[in-house]
Design goal:
Four copies of one chain form a homotetramer. With about 325 residues, the first copy, chain A, is α/β, with parallel strands linked by helices. Chain A has ten helices and 14 strands. Chain A folds into two domains: about 1-65, Phospho-2-dehydro-3-deoxyheptonate aldolase, domain 1 (Alpha-Beta Plaits, 2-Layer Sandwich); about 85-335, Aldolase class I (TIM Barrel, Alpha-Beta Barrel). Helix content of chain A is about 30%, strand content about 20%. The first copy, chain A, is elongated, with a radius of gyration of 23 Å.
Chain lengths: ~325, ~325, ~325, ~325
């Protein structure tokens, strides 16, 4: 951490600051120029409150050099983390596709879709039981009943299931789920992060729609600091000024995240654009960018989907995506296992 | 709602769509041009799923004309709502200032600040007991003990208290709080919104940092649809590309919100910029824009604030803000009562 | 175009508006509901001033249905445009790589880089002679002399050259250039667009860093409406809140642009991120997304590059990018010719 | 400038970098920690190419401490600059209102509006002769003829005139204009900036719609480095995700700009929102934020405005804005002279 001292600051106050910083167990390098005094803090600065230092009268600005996350930091854990979801591996040279409908609607629907996506090569089944919806008047999901149907589909097909948890009070219902999704709107629901941090089930942590990569990794750190290291990140589009797509899929985030952390990262190309024709090209683009997997919405009859219909593929379109993704994987040294 | 049909669509499919829409209890105006067929849906379209219609093959685009919120909509409730917080009124020609520290730190601190801001003219006391922090290693607030200290400060000064609720599981602790704040990161924590909708205590609903005005009003609608009409909106800055301020205070939102809804709206100029020198000019700007009040962080010793230090004013700076705000209020026909 | 009339508007004023619109040669469909009157304008609305209509007291909102561009619109020109740059084709199933240094610095440098990128498979040479720089104190390019050196490199290698024009007054110097680049900062320099519209040389039109896809296509329309149909679009990243990359490469723009227009589109993965390690993954991602080509910065010695050094590859890294891109092209049915 | 060296970098390479930096005439403070080596560059770093240093293999990151602008920097010029536009002062405790139509349309129109806004208290007349329009099919202004009409209005009313220059080739036509506007889309048209830098006429430099405050000040620096110190900045809204307003007026920019530079800054509340009802509240908000003036569109008959109609006030609404602004000015210690 670098602290830039204001010109003409009182030296005693600067010394007080230096002593306070040393009291936190850090070394301070003091670099006095003709016009500028710079303090370089050396040691573990992850617990230093940058805003507090900024508020001091003698401080012009503070710049963090070290990343404020530790468990998630690749510097301290250079090898890729491999997350095992009921026998399917994420990370390293593994590639996984999670597919299924936006919402669970009925036993027939979820089983039919599960069989279809399995036949095309998806290894995991997704489906929303609890749905975060912008409007209180929109369908909010089948809730507990939806979880029961997902488990029936798992029984029928052998596919592990992934579904979203929105509320700490529902956590007991999710004990038997294979991967718990934390949605974009809950990426900074810190109490929820701490609770899933106490579990050992893999967590799919979606990026908030206006959150920086650093904030995202800090949310992973919340989970990891409670003990759960089984985290898979999921890029799903950020909010920008461009109205042609619902969100802007930030694929540059993938190689950046790979540099910063050892955790696997997948892409959800369905939600980002909100346009089903974009799922194929953005899936291939995600593979090219180095993603460890995809999460794709598939519906047996998109015109009847109760939510997010515009972004759902039909099974035959999904089959096409899978075949093209598979042809591309050897070029990036990835394998679906 | 307007549905634009794709050129050369099959007429039978268009008729099926028309019949389906009529089945929802809506009238359909069918406007067939040489190149374009347009369907105008007339009636209460707030429950129509726009994404579902967009997903149909015959549909080029769908545009909503009516706002999807009803309880919050000024069209159906033209007069300003006045929210009464323990005798202090928000909305109409009333102006209120809520002040206090970012976090409650000790009995002495909260009481000292409360007395100081009351002496300067603030009517309500703010202070964080449960703190949402980006880092798991940062101070997370005094929690239940902080609430106890806030209530002591209320007893001591007679000021109603406003503090943030982050977690449904803590809701019982907030029964006796005068105004519950829902923070920016929880603006779309829909389960939390529903829970506070069941209370009758006034809710201060902060705008999410990447949420549109319409999404914000939909979150108000979540609370109102459960029965709680006592909502005060709070603009606190949105996320943009500009790095000079932490967030960009969107003051145009104030007159826009006033057109769209009857709910009162205040501004938090402290969090938006993260720079204490900006609190005075942005407070006066907020008054000029038509805000119904301000929420300002004040700390007895900013260099010791445990969080968000950079944006906290000292009591003497707050006194200056209050005197200037008061001189300005008659120009916008507002009164602190 | 759809005009939503305010509730309770005076019918005479509505009729006046209808007559005025008809006077523009358009048909009007009048749809009167219990609460809402909607006018549907049918015909060529590209010349209708949407802001003028919005300003009328009786108008609540106006929504455009047809795209305001014609020459660039795929609806009126369904087949892909193929742009021929000195024998190298852009669009359709063709794929092209343009490579070279950020700035031309010396004869030796530009010839060395040109030979290296040609050996790796690039068909066109790029290099900046006139450089747009944020700071007046930064190197502004070799200007006319740089153009001379570029032409020497063309003579030496046979590669067509692409370089940026910033100023109408320099246009004569560019007569012999094979492809003229209009940079992101000049995407809405409308006088410059009109001037290059009068030429027949192919134009590489970069997307402005905060411009929507529609604005970008309107800028193409400026060029086309003057007669020059030889336009290649170039996505190079947009400005967002994310600080980890200089800009956010918007790869979803590629399939969207392909739907809206018949013009070819390539990607510049070097400028978007500002990080040379990202060039390879983002190049592969661009191919996956359906791009018609790439523009990549390559420098013989990045540590000596006079500008934009951080994003320049060395020739051996470029060789690696080319080999991997080539292996991927068959999967998206593209060929380098 | 601070350079963070990568862990385990070769010391010889670090020494080479240090020597290279010293060769630029800068001092280097070398701070070697257990894990991190930090170089602090002391001296005039405005000409150091930050991107070049970032591109070095041994460099992890580079952070600028000093602002890269000098002429515009308040640190080197602490007192406010006062710009004299034909006898009317901008900056210090002066407040100025520039008003007039979006476009000059006819002699009668511009003279009528000029008289009306003068009667209400505006000191300067604005009006567009050359108009930057997104669409090539939209009205592009009366051009040279519009300038003639503006000068007639000046003769008739005595008001100095301000109008936009888009193209270097038109510069001779602007010799007699009192203040030349550089529009948002040309904020980084560097050749145009250099040309107006050679004049001594005051320049109104609008902020680009996606430009940071630092980039804006660098554009002012372009003009100043050519010799023209008569610059007035104009905030007019930035591009964000919020669709309710055309742009988001960034009023926090005003106190920030006041800290960073000595140049005056005014606000254009008309273009930012695109909604005429917002002009009054955002004008008062601008005064509260500390602006040195306003630029407001006024049209004699908004329903007939040929461009930007939605944001034009009628003269009677402008009269109301002026009376309220005047009442507010004493509170911020400003005077219209």
């Amino acid at each position: 951490m670098i602290i830039i001292i204001r010109n003409n600051s009182d030296r005693t106050q600067v010394d007080n600051l230096i002593n306070w910083v040393k009291g936190l167990g850090l070394d301070v390098h003091d670099s006095v120029g003709a016009k500028t005094t710079i303090l370089g803090l050396v040691g573990d600065t992850s617990k230093v409150d940058i805003d507090l230092i900024k508020s001091l009268d003698i401080v012009e600005s503070v710049k963090r050099i070290q990343e404020p996350y530790k468990n998630a930091n690749r510097k301290f854990h250079p090898e890729d983390t491999i997350v095992n979801v009921a026998g399917h591996l994420f990370g390293g040279d593994n590639f996984q596709v999670i597919a299924g409908p936006c919402s669970v609607e009925s036993e027939a629907q979820i089983i039919e879709v599960a069989k279809a996506v399995k036949a095309s090569g998806a290894n995991l089944l997704r489906g929303g039981a609890f749905k975060p919806r912008t409007s209180p008047y929109a369908f909010q999901g089948m809730k507990a009943e939806g979880l029961v149907l997902l488990k029936k589909a798992r029984e029928e097909t052998g596919m592990p299931i992934c579904t979203e948890l929105m509320n700490i009070m529902d956590i007991d219902l999710f004990q038997d789920v294979d991967m718990i999704q934390i949605g974009a709107r809950n990426m900074q629901n810190f109490d929820l992060l701490k609770e899933v941090g106490k579990l050992r089930v893999p967590i799919l942590l979606k990026r908030g729609l206006a959150n920086t990569i650093q904030e995202w990794l800090m949310s992973a750190e919340y989970i990891m600091s409670e003990g759960n290291q089984n985290i898979i990140l999921c890029e799903r589009g950020i909010r920008t000024f461009e109205p042609a797509t619902r969100n802007t899929l930030d694929l540059s985030a993938i190689p950046i995240v790979k540099q910063l952390t050892h955790l696997p990262i997948i892409v959800d190309p369905s939600h980002a654009s909100g346009i089903s024709e974009l799922v194929l090209p953005m899936s291939l683009a995600s593979v090219g960018a180095g993603a460890d997997g995809l999460m794709i919405e598939v519906h047996n009859d998109p015109t009847k989907a109760l939510c997010d219909g515009a972004q759902s593929l039909r099974p035959n379109m999904f089959e096409d995506v899978m075949r093209k993704v598979e042809r591309m994987l050897p070029l990036v040294n990835k394998v679906i296992r």
